[in-house]
Amino acid sequence: MYERKIPLPLDCGLHLTREVLNGKWKPAILNAISLDIVRPSEMVRALSDASKRVLNTQLRELENHGIIGKTIYQQYPSKVEYFLTDLGKSLMPVIDAMNYWGDQNRSILKPLIAADTIVAEPSGSGCQTYQSMVKVHNAAIA
Amino acid sequence: MYERKIPLPLDCGLHLTREVLNGKWKPAILNAISLDIVRPSEMVRALSDASKRVLNTQLRELENHGIIGKTIYQQYPSKVEYFLTDLGKSLMPVIDAMNYWGDQNRSILKPLIAADTIVAEPSGSGCQTYQSMVKVHNAAIA
DNA sequence: CCCAGTGGGGAGAAATTTATCCCCCATTAA
DNA sequence: TTAATGGGGGATAAATTTCTCCCCACTGGG
Questions:
Q1: What is the CATH number of the domain that holds B65?
Q2: How far apart are CA B35 and CA B5, in angstroms?
């Protein structure tokens, strides 16, 4: 575990939430779990731009923060399934709102972000797969 | 402007939103603006743990991303006011939801985060001021 | 024995974000 | 002229996060 040298601001809800969601793949992981992509190997496939290592690390942090839990099946082939805790479920509306807002404003945001940042179009893998699943999800909700 | 070497994943709403909100003080800045803390010097006072420099930088990024705008008053003493664009306003429900969720679960989250991270209690300044203002805000909404 | 699939994680480098220091410009008052 | 206020930003160091490479254990099939 990395030893932080600068204390985190945790006295307002905003910072607490920011800390819980702080990680390049954490929102995507939570979304994936809510879409029933619950096994590590499935996530590695779905979030193909993230390495196995990073996913493991962020999964562990989410677990430590009480957002997700894991079920370990003692069997062959070894099998693990993550799930949202009640706390995690209560966070999903936030994730969904982020997802929705980003989707709704994609056409405005992408060029602005691209202009402000050097962005190379993802090399084909990206999260297209993930994206299509999101749509299924939204459709299911609606 | 920093030249990114690894392309950002921007093809799903979640990542777009994450990128827009990516910055230690961005959510706090947006919340501050919605609380009518709109002048740079006011923000420096309210978010006392953030340096003037970082605030300026994140303000500029939010501006570049179309979330906020600024009005410059040509007068003495020189005066600048930031405001939420329509896009920014549409993002506020997400910020408010993050704020609310964190507030509601503070008692659960703080110990878990603290156990997972070396956290020194803020030295007195912190965002207490900011926090109390948030409460006023919530009260005003309710 | 070696390979494949499933779940994990150490070590160190590289990338990115924050923090620190210190200076700039403009205007006005003393 | 010299402060003082208000808004900005360069340069560089330090902190933090992410990436890459590689290894561990288990079990079943060539």
A1: 1.10.10.10
A2: 36
Let me know if residue A7 belongs to a domain.
no
Of B20, B49, B109, the CB nearest to A16: B109
Query: Per DSSP, what are the bridge partners of residue A72?
Result: A80
User: Does a structural domain hold residue A5?
Assistant: no
Residue A107's contacts (CB-CB under 8 Å, 6 or more residues apart) are none
Please state, in angstroms and rounded to a whole number, the distance separating the CA atoms of residues B131 and A70. 34
- Per-residue tens of pLDDT for chain B, all 142 residues: 778 999 999 889 999 999 999 999 999 999 999 999 999 999 999 999 999 999 999 999 999 999 999 999 988 888 999 999 999 999 999 999 999 999 999 999 999 998 887 654 443 333 444 444 444 434 333 3
For residue A3, being part of any structural domain is answered with no
Chain A residue at shortest CA distance from B63: A112
Token representation of residue A12: 């307002």
How many distinct structural domains can be found in chain A?
1
Nucleotide nearest to B78 (CA to C1'): D6
A1 assigned to some structural domain: no
Structural domain of residue A27, as residue ranges?
Answer: 13-141
Write out chain B residues lying below 8 Å of A118, CB-based: 3-5
Name which of A49, A66, A100 is nearest B112 (Cβ-Cβ): A66
pLDDT (tens digit per residue) in A4-23:
999 999 989 999 999 999 99
**Closest chain B residue to A3 measured between Cα atoms?**
B118
Closest by Cα among B62, B10, B82, B91 to A130: B10
Whole-model pTM: value is 0.87
B4 beta carbon to strand C: under 7 Å? yes
